[in-house]
């Protein structure tokens, strides 16, 4: 790639190696999707042809480097800084023959390393282990894929006493880790890098604090760096939870109720607060909990619902000057007071072609109004 961007493709059955020249020259486009909710994935399109020496089939279609479940690593060097964009495995292949020379394409699609955590449903018991220990143990069992655990202990930790209860798993490791995370309004995802062949498995709260990325600028003349952006406000999103639970320790029935989000606010006027009389109310579900666990799970349901305002758009990475990263903060300016300020980046899709690098993004926060006077330019 030119214009300050260089794309490196590594691919192979066990150890991914730099793609040979014939494969790199056939590459037409790359799409990488990153999200804090679902598995990240990639899609790579190659131009294919048969030629006089291969009239019976397309050689690239049966190349051993592009077999399903081969490992694929994409590294983007942007402004002389290499970044691992994706690390995963090929799961699908699609051939699109063309009627004109040069119009046939082979597309390979794959998912990130978390695919390996989702291949087998396994019954398992985790005696005397809380969620933090379980998360570390499961992640470390996939060390052959370069997984490095980054596990943040929740505020409420209740180590199970074996004579009282034993945590039981009846799902894949990915599903189980995700379910454990949701109990605390946490997320679980795998970040490629920081160097090739390594991945960071993050189990913890959404990262809504820290230094924000360079601002997304709209309607600011020469400072504008987004191609498009639109904002949506869903007033039906926020939910509060209430109910009663019989504390398994004291055997007493205690009330449980949530009122709103306890996260660091990104919006001055959160919808759960400004529309508190119209917020949807749900009943608490769950048995075998003590009062602290019940309150924690009720709060987790509320936290998962509070992002009532979203923004979707597209930017040109060359004009932006950086790569927008998901699962962190970014500033918005030029959209007016209601939508300027800090946002949480939920999803980013990278679209790379020759001399072109565009990113589609989805941002979220709990309401309207900026909490800060200016954002990082």
Topology:
Layout lengths: L4 E8 L4 E2 L2 H6 E9 L5 E8 L22 E8 L2 E16 L7 E9 L9 E4 L5 H10 L6 E5 L16 E4 L1 H10 L4 E6 L6 E6 L8 E5 L8 E8 L5 E8 L6 E5 L9 E4 H4 L5 E4 L7 H15 L3 E8 H4 L8 E5 L7 E13 L2 E10 L1 E4 L7
Helix pairs in contact: 2-3
Explained architecture:
By secondary structure, the protein is mainly β. It has four domains: 5-112, Phage tail proteins - horseshoe like beta roll fold (Roll), CATH 2.30.300; 120-204, Phage tail protein beta-alpha-beta fold (3-Layer(bab) Sandwich), CATH 3.55.50.10; 213-233 and 308-346 and 361-370, no CATH class; 239-305, no CATH class. The chain is 13% helix and 42% strand. The protein is built from six helices and 23 strands. The strands form five sheets. Strands 1, 2, 3, 4, 5, 6, 7, 13, 14, 19, 20, 21 and 22 form a 13-stranded mixed beta sheet that branches. Strand 11 (187-192) and strand 12 form a beta hairpin. Helix 2 (131-140) packs antiparallel against helix 3. The radius of gyration is 24 Å and the shape is globular. The mean pLDDT is 92.
Q: How is the main sheet built?
A: 13 strands, mixed
Mean pLDDT: 92
Structural class of the helix and strand makeup?
Answer: mainly beta
> Which regions contain 5 or more consecutive residues with pLDDT less than 50?
none
Helical content stands at 10-25%
Structural features:
Phage tail protein beta-alpha-beta fold, 23 strands, mainly beta, 4 domains, 13-stranded mixed beta sheet, 6 helices, Phage tail proteins - horseshoe like beta roll fold, 3-stranded mixed beta sheet, 13% helix, single chain, 377 residues
């Amino acid at each position: 790639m030119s214009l300050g961007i260089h794309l490196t493709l590594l691919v192979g059955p066990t150890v991914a190696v730099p793609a040979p020249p014939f494969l790199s020259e056939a590459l037409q486009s790359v799409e990488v999707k990153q999200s804090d909710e679902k598995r990240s994935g990639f899609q790579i399109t190659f131009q294919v042809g048969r030629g006089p020496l291969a009239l019976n089939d397309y050689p690239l279609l049966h190349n051993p480097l592009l077999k399903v479940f081969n490992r694929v690593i994409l590294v983007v060097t942007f402004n002389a800084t290499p970044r691992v964009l994706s690390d995963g495995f090929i799961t699908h292949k699609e051939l699109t023959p063309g009627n004109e020379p040069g119009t046939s394409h082979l597309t390979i699609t794959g998912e990130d390393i978390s695919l390996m955590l989702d291949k087998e449903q396994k019954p398992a018991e985790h005696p005397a282990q809380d969620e933090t220990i379980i998360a570390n143990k499961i992640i470390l069992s996939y060390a052959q894929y370069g997984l490095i655990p980054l596990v943040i202990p929740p505020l409420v930790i209740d180590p199970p006493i074996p004579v009282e209860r034993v945590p039981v798993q009846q799902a894949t490791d990915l599903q189980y880790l995700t379910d454990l995370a949701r109990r605390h309004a946490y997320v679980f995802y795998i970040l490629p890098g920081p160097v090739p062949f390594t991945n960071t498995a993050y189990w913890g709260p959404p990262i809504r604090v820290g230094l924000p990325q360079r601002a997304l600028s709209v309607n600011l003349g020469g400072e504008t760096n987004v191609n498009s952006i639109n904002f949506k406000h869903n007033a039906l999103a926020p939910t509060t939870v209430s109910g009663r639970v019989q504390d398994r320790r004291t055997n007493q029935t205690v009330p449980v109720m949530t009122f709103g989000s306890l996260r660091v606010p990104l919006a001055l006027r959160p919808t759960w607060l400004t529309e508190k009389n119209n917020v949807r109310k749900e009943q608490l579900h769950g048995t075998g909990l003590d009062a602290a666990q019940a309150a924690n799970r009720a709060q987790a349901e509320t936290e998962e619902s509070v992002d009532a305002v979203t923004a979707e758009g597209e930017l040109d990475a060359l004009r932006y000057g950086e790569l927008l990263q998901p699962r962190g903060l970014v500033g918005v300016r030029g959209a007016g007071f209601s939508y300027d300020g800090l946002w949480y980046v939920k999803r980013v899709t990278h679209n790379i072609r020759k001399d072109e690098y565009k990113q589609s993004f989805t941002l979220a926060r709990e309401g309207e109004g900026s909490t800060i006077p200016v954002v990082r330019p």
